[in-house]
Amino acid sequence: MPISWAGGILETLKINMTSAEKASRLELIIRFIWGTIVAIVLCILGIFVSLAVFVQWFHILLLGKRNTALVNFTNSYLKAYYGLSFYFNLSTDERPPLIPQF
Predict the structure, then answer these.
(1) H/E element holding 5?
(2) Which tens digit of pLDDT belongs to each residue from 3-37?
(3) Based on CB atoms within 10 Å of each CB, which residue in 48, 54, 96, 101 is the most buried?
């Protein structure tokens, strides 16, 4: 059940992983290269997310409510980060997108 707050609805995080028993050696090499490229992109985005969390902190402190755009931006980053973690740690075969959906 979603939790409501003053600015909208917070979604419950659900993680679905799919993986086959059979694994490809070529996919293992591609996984390392693709995961490294996506990790670099997420590191750069992580700087902006850190700034967004900092701004969100002051927004909550001064106004007593969350900014919906900042919450969505941060949540999108976290979903992309954990998607990359599952892919990079061989838990799933689904490749994460190069740029997360915001």
Answers:
(1) strand 3-5
(2) 444 455 566 767 676 767 777 788 888 889 999 99
(3) 96
